[in-house]
Design a protein that fits this description.
about 140 residues; 3 helices; mainly alpha
């Protein structure tokens, strides 16, 4: 058999040689990128809007809690008022007046007498100058 000597391998492959031929130097892009800036502004605005909305929600919840506590206080005061009115009605009733009179030591009258109004001039003058001089009290 014949001896075959290997052929020397080229340093660059044909595919790399084509790629290097396609590469070129490009100048720096000095245009301002507005998409990223606009996205940041919109994102910041949305964050600020949501933060303000959360703050408003917190204020509303606080105000509602205050209103609930005032409403509960009003309800308890209405219950106290109704109890006081019921107690007043009891004391103004005949049974309540009789109970208060008996506690004060008053006794029931034995006979009932009707009082008639006296016309001015029909009264007799007092028997002595001061009719209440002998009353101690």
């Amino acid at each position: 058999m014949a001896a075959v000597t290997p052929a020397p391998r080229p340093r660059t492959s044909p595919a790399t040689a084509r790629k290097s031929a396609e590469l070129r130097v490009v100048r720096v892009n000095n245009r301002v990128r507005t998409v990223g800036t606009l996205g940041t502004i919109v994102g910041s605005f949305m964050f600020l809007l949501l933060f303000m909305l959360a703050g408003l929600h917190a204020v509303l919840v606080q105000t509602q809690a205050t209103l609930d506590s005032v409403d509960a206080e009003i309800s308890s005061l209405q219950v106290q008022r109704n109890e006081a009115l019921a107690q007043l009605a009891w004391h103004d009733s005949p049974d309540g007046l009789a109970e208060a009179a008996s506690k004060a030591g008053l006794a029931l009258a034995t006979d009932v007498e009707t009082l008639a109004p006296v016309v001015e001039g029909d009264l007799m003058p007092p028997a002595r100058p001061d009719p209440f001089a002998g009353v101690v009290g």
